[in-house]
Amino acid sequence: MSAVSDILKSLLSRIQPTGGETQAAEKHFGTIKTRLETVFAAKKFPKVGSFSRGTFIRGRSDVDVFAQIPLDEVWWGNEWKSSFTILDNFRKELATRLPNTKLGRDVHAIVVEFRDMDIDVVPAAWGGFSKEYKRPMYYIPDGNGRWKLTSPEIHNGYIAMKNQESGGKLRAVAQLFKFWRLCREPAIPISSFHIEMVLASEGVCVGVKSYAECMSEMLQKMAERDCAGIRDPYGISGNIPATKTDAQRATALASVRHSREHAKAALAAERVGMVSEALQQWNYVFNYELL
User: How far apart are CA 131 and CA 256, in angstroms?
Assistant: First the structure.
C-alpha cells in the first residue's frame, strides 16, 4: 500500500461522524417532529440525504429529514398551493417551537441552525407508491414555488447497489469528495445527492482503482460535464442539478478544473515514485487540510 493511500485512508477515518453527532441529530429530529406532527398532521419523518446513505461527514454536513404531510395539505381547491407558502408555514411553526434558534430557507427546506449542526426540514407531500419499484414517492418544493416528485428510497437503493459493485469505494470516495468540496475557500456548493449520483452512474469507483485514482477521475468527470445536471436514471426527479444557481455552477467548475490539474499531477508523481511531490499535490487539492 502506498503512502498516498495511507494518507487518504487516514483522512477518511478523521471525517467519519461521531456517535455523539448521530445522537444529537436524533434528538433534534425529535424536537422538530414534536412541533410539526401536531400542526401539519405530519405522519412520518424519514431521514434522507447523506445521513441516510452513510456519507455524512464529521462536523461538516447538514442533516436532512422529510416531514411527510398529507397531499391535501398542499392543495387549495383544485390547485397546488405554492411551495413557498408551505415552507413559510413550516418556518413560522418551527420559530414558535424554537424561538432562540436561527432559521433559514433553502431551495427545498427550512434550515434549522442548531448550535452543533444544521437540520434541513423538507415538506414532503405523499405521492403514492411507485408501481414499478414499490417504493414511496413524495412531492417536495422545487425552488420555484411549485412541487417536484422524488423518491429517496429508490435513489438510495441505486446508490447502495453501485456502492456494493464498487466494493465499498463509492461511499468512501463520496465522503472524500464532499470533504474536498467543503475545505475549499469558499466552500464549493455542489449537491451531495448530485455527487453520489454522478459517482454511481458514471462507474467512477468500479474496478481496481485506488482512492486517489477515483478522486482524480471524479474531478475529471465533473470537469467534462461542466458541472451540469445529471438525468435521474429512474426518470422520477428529472434533472438533478450540481448547484442551485448558474453563478454557483461557474464557481464550482473553476474549482473542479483547478483541483483536477493538481490531482493529475499527484498521480503522475506517484507513478514515478515521487511520493513527497504526490502528497504535496493532494494537499493542494484539499486546501492544505490533508496533512
Answer: 39
> Following CA atoms 154, 157, 159, 164 in sequence, which dihedral angle do they give, to the nearest 10 degrees?
-160
Domain ranges of the chain: 3-15+155-285, 19-150
∠ CA 3-172-205, rounded to 5°: 90
pLDDT at position 1 is 55
For residue 17, the 8-state DSSP code is P
Task: State the cell numbers at 44.
Answer: 412520518
The label of the residue with cell 511531490 reads: 277
Task: Please state, in angstroms and rounded to a whole number, the distance separating the CA atoms of residues 99 and 95.
Answer: 5
Q: What is the pLDDT of residues 197-242, one digit of tens each?
A: 999 999 999 999 999 999 999 999 999 999 999 999 999 998 999 9
CATH node for 19-150: 3.30.460.90
Q: β-strand 230-231 against 239-240: which pairing, if any?
A: antiparallel
CA pair distance 32, 52, nearest whole angstrom: 17
**Average pLDDT over the chain, rounded to whole?**
93
Q: What sections of the chain are H helices per DSSP?
A: 3-14, 19-39, 49-53, 83-97, 152-165, 169-183, 192-202, 211-224, 246-271, 275-285
Task: Determine the angle formed by the axes of helices 3-14 and 169-183, rounding to 10 degrees.
Answer: 80
The predicted pLDDT at position 212 comes to: 97
Alpha carbon distances (Å) from 274 to 11, 277, 279, 281: 20, 5, 9, 11
Distances (CA, A) of 66 to 49, 58, 120, 141, 291: 10, 21, 8, 11, 37
**% of the chain residues with pLDDT over 90:** 76
Q: CA 19, CA 55: separation in Å to the nearest integer?
A: 14
Question: Can you tell me the mean pLDDT for 155-180?
Answer: 97
Who's near 102: CB < 8 A, 6+ residues apart?
113
